Amino acid sequence: MDREQWGSRWGFVLAAVGSAIGLGNIWRFPYVAYKNGGGAFLIPYIFALLTTGLSFVALEFVIGKKYRGSAPLSYFRINRHMEFVGWWQFAISFVIMTYYAVILGWALSYIGFSSTLAWGKNTKDFLFNSYLNVLPNASVSNFGGVVWRALIPLLVVWLVTLAISFRGVKKGIEKVSKIAIPALVSLFLIFVIRAVTLPGSSLGLNAFFQPQWNQFLNPEIWKAAYSQIFYSLSLAMGIMITYSSYLPEKTDTTNNAFIAAFSNSGFELLAGFGIFAALGFMATNSGVAVKDLAAGGIGLAFVVLPQIINQLPFPQFFGVVFFVCLLIAGITSLISLVEVCVSAAIEKFGWSRHRSVMIIGGLATLVSVAYTTRGGMYLLDVVDNFVNGFGVLPSAVFEIVLILWAFHQMKPLMEEANRYSQIRLGNYFKISLGLITPVMLVVILISSLITNITTVYGGYPSNFVGLFGWGMVILMLVFAVLIPHMPWKCNTSLTQKEEEK
Amino acid sequence: MSVSAIVMMIVAIGVIWGGLVVSVIHAVRHP
Question: Can you tell me the distance from the alpha carbon of A290 to that of A269, in angstroms, rounded to the nearest whole number?
Fold first, then answer.
């Protein structure tokens, strides 16, 4: 059977951009930048983008295009001993998609809540008690019952996502991305323009961009900048390899990588404008300092933003606009996570796309129900911390060290990329990817290891973190090591014609 | 906004959005 292919270059670029732009762009970047020196953070951030960001995306695009397979198959084709990295990335994508869908379910609910401003004045109490009914403490033995208000939107999110995956690469993912990304940018621009024209917005923007130069040489800032670039671009999860494996042969992967990486950062910067302008407005209105309002993650999206929306003119309209943006940004990323697993299962087990979507989607939906219990919020927090810290980071280190150093793929991959691109990959690419990136990744990984070994994450009970944090990482590792022992049901060698090239 | 904040804003916009514009123009000229 012929491998599916993107219908156009821009279809692929928009799908890759849709995958990269996710919840983290809106709720993580503005807060991370503010917390790490404001304007002074932007220098290491830009440095990280120009070194790791551009190079890593270019690497993953050219791997997918050259080896024409899902992440496990592409790695297998590089060297059979590398297959486990692909299954490690499969496991990461699967775990992330299970809780990512839950947050999108919340965003869907909040679109409905926006129409009546149902969250009232105490938005924190509304989220944790009225909506999610969160248990007072995390416990291994007590998760409380399923919260139906969270479960029903979750099922809707899964239904939509799996329906898109069901239709395939060209008719499903590409078609949706071509509509969703322009819609996301247009809607988000409405939110940002409104935010920056509010009274007091310059106070927030000043807090966001004001450089604290005494922080500039602090290693923590450089670590935060590299982490932000790395997580934000969905690297080392198999996504970019999977998407680029559907590219036609004569494709300029380097230029596409530049567009994807700059678009992702461009959107993050836009989010910084919108969020901090809105925070400045609220600080002026309520007489509270911006530093006391600034937050990131779930707290920003579902607690602070609703407070700001309450004070805007036409609050219902801007509430809907913001949460629709959150939902679109998340759905396009969720689709890409599903595709990593679906394409790998098609090739490894010989399943049809429909069967693969049903089995993987069904399993992921079942697992994600656990996060809709009253203790699900704690589970989500622990799983998110461990899958990012000990799933994605080791995956990236393995990917780079094995491909570039152990299996000497730097030269052939550069030649492949340069064959169809006017932007030549040379020494800059070699130094960025072969030296700076692995050094920074190892520093971040070791620092994360030390933090999580010396302290119990989040102050949760140690058996809770042990079981759902470390236990999950061990389970992923066992999965990644065992699956390569099963035979492939597809042809694992590239065709004669492709090998000659 | 302070002068240093404005300068940092211009630098970020210039590099990131400038980089995006140049990449897109390059893609349009070399389809």
Answer: 18
Mean pLDDT of chain A: 92
All residues of chain B having their beta carbon less than 8 Å from the beta carbon of residue A262 are 16-17, 19-20, 23
Question: What are A291-314's pLDDT values in tens digits?
Answer: 888 777 888 889 988 998 998 889
Instruction: Name residues whose C-beta falls within 8 Å of residue A262's C-beta, 6 or more positions apart in sequence.
Output: A49, B16, B17, B19, B20, B23
User: Which residue shows structure tokens 């990304």?
Assistant: A181
A469 min Cα distance to partner chain B (Å): 36
Burial track A44-67 (b if 16+ CB lie within 10 A, e otherwise) = bbbbbbbbbbbbbbbbbbbbbbbb
- B1 contact partners, CB below 8 Å, separation of at least 6: A202, A205, A206, A209, B9
Instruction: Tell me which chain A residues have a C-beta less than 8 angstroms from the C-beta of B5.
Output: 38-39, 205-206, 208-211
Residue A138: predicted pLDDT: 87
Cα–Cα dist A50/A401, whole Å = 20
Q: Which of A264-278, A294-308, B17-31 has the lowest mean pLDDT?
A: A294-308
Write down the ipTM of this complex: 0.97
Residue A183: Cβ within 10 Å count: 13
User: A165 CA to chain B: closest CA distance, Å?
Assistant: 28
For residue A18, the SS3 value is helix
A259 and B9 in contact by Cβ < 8 A?
no
Q: Which helix (H) or strand (E) holds A243?
A: helix A239-244
| Structural contact between residues A400 and A433, judged by C-beta atoms closer than 8 angstroms | yes
d(CA A301, CA A297): 7
Q: Which of A39, A50, A256 sits opposite B4 (nearest CB)?
A: A39
Cα three-residue angle A251-A176-A64, rounded to 5 degrees: 30
Count of C-beta atoms within a 10 Å radius of residue A247: 21
pLDDT attached to residue B7: 92
Q: Kindly provide the residue ranges of all beta strands, DSSP E only, lying in A273-426, ordered along the sequence.
A: none
The 10s digit of each residue's pLDDT in A340-391 is 999 999 999 999 999 999 999 999 999 999 999 999 999 999 999 899 888 8
Name the residue facing A259 among B9, B13, B24 (closest C-beta).
B24
- Determine the 3-state secondary structure of A312 from DSSP: coil
